[in-house]
Amino acid sequence: MYFPVGWPKLLSLPSEEEDVLQFVVANRDKTLFAVLTSQAVYVWFCKPCVHVVSYRRSDDSVIVLGKNQVAEWKPDSTALAVTTSGGHLLFYKIDHEGSGSLYAQKHHRHRQDSIEVDNHLVPAMKISIAGTLQIHGGIKSMVCFKDELMVSSGHGILMRVRWDGVVNDKMSISINTIRFSIDLQQSRQTQLDQPGVYFNQIEYCPLLGGFAVILGDGRAGFLTAPSARFEPQSVHGVWAQEVTNGSCIAANHKYRLIAYGCKNGQGIVYTVDEITGSLLVSHRLALSNTDYPDACNAAGAVTTLKWTPDGCALAMSWQNGGLALWSVFGAKLLCTLGGDYGFSQDAFRDNPLQIKAMEWGMEGYHLWITTTPKKSEKNSSDLRSLESSGDLLQLQFVKSALTVNPCRCNHEHLFLQGEDRLYINTGDTILKTNTEQIASGGSPVREMPPVLNSAGPTTQGPSLLIGNKQWQIIQLPLGYLSTNWPIKYAAVDRAGHCVAVAGKTGLAHYALFTRRWKLFGNETQEQDMVVNGGLCWWRDFIIVACYNLNESRDEIRLYPRVSNLDNAFATITKVPYQVLLVNVFRDILIVFCADYHVTMYNIERRDTKPKSTLDDAYPTGVLTRIQDLSLANFVPHPSSLISLTLTSLRSETASSKMPSSSREAESLIVNVAGRLLMLQRDRSKPQYKEKDRKKAPQELPFLAPVVLASSVENMWAPVGYSKEKPHLMEALWLGCGAVGMKVWLPLFPTKEDKPHSFLAKRIMLPFKLQIYPLAVLFADAVVLGAANDVLTFDPMSPGLVLSCQQGLPYCVMERTTQIYLHHILRQLLRRNLGFHALDIARSCTSLPYFSHVLELMLHEVLEAEATASEPIPDALLPRVVAFIHEFPQFLQTVVHCARKTEIALWPYLFATVGNPRDLFEECIQSEAFETAASYLIILQNLENPKVSRHHATQLLDCTLDHGKWELCKDLVRFLRAIGPNDPESSPRPTAPINSPAIFPHSATTPKAESMTAFPFSPALAATQRNRSSSYTNPNFPPTSANDKQRSSSAHQQIPDRKSSVHRKDSGGSADEFFLDTILTRHARKLLSIGKLKDLGLFAAHLEFPLIGWLRKERLRVAKVEDPVESLKKLHNDFLWPLPAFPLVSVSHLPPPKYVGRLYSQSSSGSASQTGLDNNVNGVSIDDEVDSGILATSGSNHGYISSPIPSSKSRQQATTQTEDLLCDGKTEDAVLKPITPIKAMGTDEVSLSTCTTTEMTSENSSTLGENEYGLLDDSPWSSSQQLAELELLSQELVHKGPPQSEAELRYLQKIFSEATCLEWSLLLAVVLRDPVAVTSVVNTASMTECPLEMIGRMREALSFLELWADTECPGYRPFLYSLKDQAQVLTAIVNSESTVKTPSKTPPDTPTSPTPEASFTGSELSFHGSHGNRTDDENEVRTLDGNSESEISDVENEIGNDENGYQCRVS
After folding, report:
1. Distance CA 537, CA 560 (A)
2. Nearest to 259 by CA among 218, 224, 297, 220
3. Are 399 and 416 in contact (CB under 8 A)?
4. Chain segment 1104-1135, per-residue pLDDT in tens
5. 529 phi, psi to nearest 5 deg
6. Cβ-proximal residues to 732 (8 Å cutoff; 6+ apart), any chain
7. Cα separation of 948 and 937, whole Å?
8. 0.85 exceeded by the pTM?
9. Cα 227 to Cα 211, 824, 1185, distances in angstroms
């Protein structure tokens, strides 16, 4: 809970040759530090860190008396005792020079009394030598004992020396007279009669009542006496049995521990048994061999041990360098042996932290260090080594607020405090409030940032503390720190919105949502109170345990947050003794005083009425005393009480269905020097019933305490209650240092457990942690902590050069997280409590990392049992596997665990789990294809290549059918990598993803360079920039010769793999051919059912040569048997809505000439965006025209790399697309006679009676059903009026997603290049692109296309016209505009038929229009439509085979029939 931050500070001393740093020691209040060198004494002040005074002895004095070694301060800081190597004790007198100051910092305080004050006064001192005392035999150790010095001599005498230099011989203790034993009761006592025995180290332990000592031979013990005077005759020694090579000592008074450092690089911590008086081993301080191999032997002997001022951490240093920091019960917080010391070459040879002495500063925020002099080779030729004097360093630390203020609110957040700032980790929250809420004391609203997911609206998952690693650093105001440095206590409220701090005097609080500090307006009130018992939050009140300097009494104060920080708004309650700890449980305040009494108060919030109309109302808190409880029989010393709290927990678990309102304070839990005691409420008293609870606060009588656990550093008890997770929310969590954590878990009884009354209602489960716990998220099963890391810099600024040259790293602090749920489940399964484990696991299945929890549990059990050196009689793995089998993540958990485990452990795993083949088959049946792919790796290593290939092929078939293209790509690569004889052969390099032939780049638009070339692969957008394309010329060649040349060049750009689709070269293998056959078969399947989108995705991900394959299949599977159904499938697959007929009146139509010109411009825009020639089929298109239907529609016709819609959105869009069909219920069209309504040629007729929606109403009529179709010269029979309809239809049509448009246009080009003109024509119709249709017809007329393909194209247009007339009128304008292209196709068919039949006369219609007969600009002429034809397919085919004149006659006949019938959907 202590963490270093920033650079270590280098404090400079006057450089003197051969004046080596020896020692550093602080006075009692940590304000003055004495730094010893061999010849001088330097006195430093703590804040500001400056050198105050020094005394240097002469060279003769050093020769006669010896060099300085260690020092001790007098308790009142007026004298300093220094030992020398010559056996002399030097006494220095330190005096203050008058009332003046050496340094003074001026600061202007912006308060009511704005005056300049002197802050951080550094007193002017003088130091002089007061006397010397020679100790015969030399001085081995020295310690301050009350008002005397206890000096250990080399003759084995503990001498009592007064500060005036007089030795109290009567009270001196000889080591030979001390009787040592194992304990103070019945053990055998022995005396040390060996000559030359002495005390090498000695440490005074006032709260333990004795001295911790280390003998000259390395043995250790503890000296105690029945009286506080420590008379020589009554001194008794107790051995520390396991210490045989001790080197240093440190005593912890708060936790009653004694730490011994040993020469083997380890430490042993003992506790004193209160009954027998013996020393019991609490824990050991040793670095693990896994993290630091052989570190203890390499580091050398332990040289220094120092506990922090609050006793919560222990600093350890080694002889060969290195610093470690341990928690009070042995959890490692820091170790520099594995640190990175940056660019300094000397740091790799010698550890820069070769510590000789160290001392903690005030509140533990600084660690003063003196380092051992280093030997640096200046001249390698002379091999002369120069000895430096060492360095004086100051390390900065931050610590957890729980070390000194363990209130409940601090346990709910990751909250650290430094000397001048606070670190808080509260998650990614948004605090919203307003001025009215702040004024009224309302709590701000905590909200999550909006997170959009496919599941629906914003949902809140687990706690935001899990994923957030950012620290909110709150700097304390300089106006408060200037007189009250450093921070002593800090507290954060439950919501994490407000913090309060208390320093030397007074207090201040801060709100995160206002970002403002509140200080005392009256500085006198701030200086008159000292917070000495902690502070905490209750709702919007700050509860403070303080001492009133003005009235010399202890008080409890409640300050409202919303009011000004002033005593006028505070509620003050007097207490008879000093308050040491405060805590809050709901509306109860718990106070522990120095008289061992716990006092409980009921807190009530009231609104005080203003005294006048000018004053504002403010809330006040009222304290009502409930009861007192004495802990004198259980607490050895008041300072040994670490924490206390009220909880709703009991040793007997209540029903899990009990409402939270009835869960009152059931027990008092106290931590006494690491032992956790629980005092439960006595329910046997009849006068305390539930019905009397609401009348008045009642006393809570408690039973005798029960010890729950030992070696407890922190405890977390949840306040809330959750019905979904009762086990986790009713448990007590304990941090136990090196042991890890312990959880006191409830076991709720079930129907099956009723007969077993002997079963315990709670169970204590221990488990290890990799981090130090600072906060517990109960419902999320996560522990939060902090850890240190070091950063190395190549210094560029002069200020960093010195630190980097010394090899000192820059320390940073990061937040850490660890899941603990799998530890609890494992412990329950080990104890045959699988039913309770199953209940806990099922309550946590909603956690996003639940599958990871199961995987961790399986992995840890597998590693422990499979690597065991001896057989395990009761293996846990079968129970764990059976437990995981209860969840749907079983197959995934097993394969993930196996792939993260060594192959040597797989037989042990699958002997319990089952055959991996069977597991693979289960994955296939459950459609868990990703999991099945993971099992292929297992099968590849356990089975022969044939088996692996068989299962991979099976999985490939399934994934192809389900459209898992990314997985298919991996499986294809996996199959190609498997060699015929070597199952572990390295994968061969496949074709590059950005192959220009497979993924052609668009050259159709000016922005094509910044878009993805292939629209089916949005994930490859970053790597598919600026590719070359098979469409190198943006202009479509108009001649057949150029078309052949283009086809030839495109054919050359198709990648020729070693194993093509249908061909196998001489070097290819049968397996390669078989794989290509599978891919070809699936491509044929997709094309046969009209799944063009899946075909495009298939070709994109699997690098399938689509163009070459389509050329071969254009007369086979690429035929379009049912054009209408194929068109519908295209609309559904690409989420492309069917066009709707516009609702526009004739009076609103633009003039015919304007409409024709605008339609020409729309065609130009379409052509420019599709990259076709500006003279397509004789249609002249202006390149400079920038407006038009497609240009103004807002969609880009380039290749857009927008993400493909999810399956759910695709289903919704597909449903909407199907609703756009005019006849979605497959109803028959009925022809009925009609009568004209008005005379022909009237100008007042509107289109209001035309169909405007997707579904045709019975009262509406379609286009051409009324008077508009009676005569050939009707307003809609001319080409300009058809152009107007098409224009309006395109203006109002709702296009599909831009990604779908890019995909459609890409596929249309692919099919055109492959001369699969049937599908290319349908794609052009879906896009409603007349230029693309013209291009397809040109291709059919200018190339050698089979006659049957052209015939089917002509049939397709006829079927589409018929379908548009009967079901989808929105398509009619566009299809009517294609009549010229249909006539071209008819002419081609007729001409080919004439060529094949010599007896018939060749038709006059040419196979392709000449430039003179082409249409240009606004002179586009559109012929009449084919009308509502009959649905007889044979008749349509007959029409396709007739001559042009016959077709015209039939059209006229059908047009006459239209005048008497209307198409109505019944």
Report:
1. 10
2. 220
3. yes
4. 999 999 999 988 999 999 999 999 999 999 99
5. -130, 140
6. 647, 649, 669, 708, 715, 716, 717, 743, 744
7. 9
8. no
9. 13, 49, 109
